[in-house]
Amino acid sequence: MNPTIELLKSHRSIRKFQDRKIPRELFEELIRAGQSAATSSHVQAYSIIHVVNPQNRETLAELSGGQRYVAECSDFLVFCADMKRATDAAERAGAEVVRGMTEQLLVASIDAALVAQNVATAAESAGLGLCYIGGIRNNPAKVSELLRLPDHVYPVFGMCLGYPDQNPEVKPRLPLTSILKEDYYQDEQDAELVAEFDATMHTYYQARSGGNKDTNWSEQLKPLFTSKLRPHMRDFLRGKGFEMK
Amino acid sequence: MNPTIELLKSHRSIRKFQDRKIPRELFEELIRAGQSAATSSHVQAYSIIHVVNPQNRETLAELSGGQRYVAECSDFLVFCADMKRATDAAERAGAEVVRGMTEQLLVASIDAALVAQNVATAAESAGLGLCYIGGIRNNPAKVSELLRLPDHVYPVFGMCLGYPDQNPEVKPRLPLTSILKEDYYQDEQDAELVAEFDATMHTYYQARSGGNKDTNWSEQLKPLFTSKLRPHMRDFLRGKGFEMK
User: What pLDDT does A152 receive?
Assistant: First the structure.
């Protein structure tokens, strides 16, 4: 196993950061590494908002559900799916463009994710830590207003970046046989594999240094699907021009 | 700049592969590296179909728009957004789950993308090449049928993996100032930056070794948005239980 694979396998979210800034030169290297990710048909359908204003950082920490590290980390990014730039460019070049297709929502969301994961890997390779902030979708309209996002642009997730001030364990993942399937989807063994993973996660939650609790994977999932998590997303996206046509 | 950032910045799609198989041990390492990516609320809402059957590889090459490397590469993966496993697990644990939310479509699509980008980076770190196959969404219903994907699972994209038998140039990316914005979205300079990038891409297309052509970025984008690219996606997703509620 080479050092890069070793690095990827050692990922864990960092939520406590040193009071130390990432040098601008390194920061830009992370973004350039992000840009090098594959992009659907070269569309590059994303924008990254680098939130520097301290008051806006505080507001975003609150809007994300009171996640203090959003305000406290060295650099906070909001990765946006951006179908505006490319469709505007095609329009200026003389095309009568169609917007609001479901396919475009997917392309832009996936593009943003691929870029972000490269930024994450680049950051960790430089000794930095990071945490994705899906909580940005708790209040996407307010976030969009704060960041002045136009139509055809929406905030997919945030990312905290900085020098780690904690060293949490790597969180276990589902058994390989559960997520990797040969030729056909089959899940006859899934209940068994999930039960095995529930036991793994129970042990993890009991033993971990950052606060132990008596739970497992399936139990942790329950509130995510019983309540309609972020039921505003459809109407929010439609309002931003992602009409899912 | 460290070797991992160097690696990320050297990415280019590989579409011609040596007739040489990736060893199983390395292949599994790539998947494990993929699994280590961040995942929304630990949901791990993805499955990977490893397509081994040669006839199915041929069929998928055709369904993706006649992309021969789908059949010819060492290993072909289909990354699926999978909301079945996690919702089934929560249901077995006693939850009355809600499915079909727009948020769930996003979570699962993004999870699949994060995993895939880690697999891509791991592969390149081991001297392999890869190519994402968004063309899998040309015929998602037939792909789903072939791979026997159940409801709440959909094929996001494919990935060809193998030992490169070509050495294409790195494709330019948009100027950093176009995709990175401080505090607020602003695009006053976008037309100018895109014009600059069009010139860059024109030079690239004229000079590249793999077939030159007289075009630029904006021109290349035009057919993507004038025709309704993949207009079937909404109804396809709804039919698979991603109702975008």
Answer: 98
- B154 sits in which H/E element: strand B153-162
> Which 8-state DSSP code applies to residue A171?
P
Contacts of A111 (CB under 8 A, 6+ apart): A39, A40, A43, A44, A45, A46, A81
Q: What is the complex's ipTM, to 2 decimals?
A: 0.98
Measured in angstroms, the CA of B125 and the nearest CA of chain A are apart by 6
Per DSSP, the residues of A103-116 read HHHHHHHHHHHHHH
Task: Show the domains of chain B with their CATH numbers.
Answer: 3-169+230-239 (3.40.109.10)
A4 contacts B122? CB cut-off 8 A: yes
Q: Which of helix, strand or coil describes residue A46?
A: strand
Residue whose C-alpha is closest to residue A126's, from A37, A25, A51 = A25
Encoded amino acid at A87, one letter: T
Instruction: Please tell me if residue B90 touches chain A, with a CB cutoff of 8 Å.
Output: yes
Q: A36, exposed or middle or buried, with CB in 10 Å at 0-12, 13-18, 19+?
A: buried
Q: How many angstroms separate the first and last alpha carbons of chain A?
A: 45
Using alpha carbons, select from B118, B145, B180 the residue that is nearest to residue B49. Answer: B145
Find residues 176-215 of chain A whose CB sits inside 8 Å of chain B.
176, 178-187, 190-191, 194
Q: Which residues contact B131 (CB under 8 A, 6 or more apart)?
A: B13, B14, B15, B69, B73, B159, B160
DSSP B162: E
Within chain B, where are the H helices?
3-9, 24-35, 54-63, 69-72, 84-92, 102-125, 140-146, 176-179, 190-207, 217-226, 233-239
> Nearest to residue A142, comparing CAs of A234, A56, A53?
A56
pLDDT (tens digit per residue) in A213-226: 899 999 999 999 98
pLDDT tens across B52-100, in order? Answer: 999 999 999 999 999 999 999 999 999 999 999 999 999 999 999 999 9
Q: Do A28 and B183 touch (CB under 8 A)?
A: no
Give the burial class of B122: count Cβ atoms within 10 A of its Cβ; 0-12 exposed, 13-18 middle, 19 or more buried.
Answer: buried
Residue written as tokens 């909001």? A78
What are the Cα distances from residue B230, in Å, to A90, A99, A239, B45, B219? Answer: 18, 12, 22, 23, 19
The C-alpha of A41 sits at a distance from chain B's nearest C-alpha, in angstroms, of 8
Within 8 A of B106 by CB-CB distance, chain A residues are 109, 137, 156, 233
- Nearest-by-Cβ selection for A121 from B8, B44, B225: B8
Phi-psi label, residue B22: left if phi above 0, alpha if psi -120 to 50, beta otherwise: beta
How do residues B202-219 score in pLDDT, each as one tens digit?
Answer: 999 998 877 788 999 999
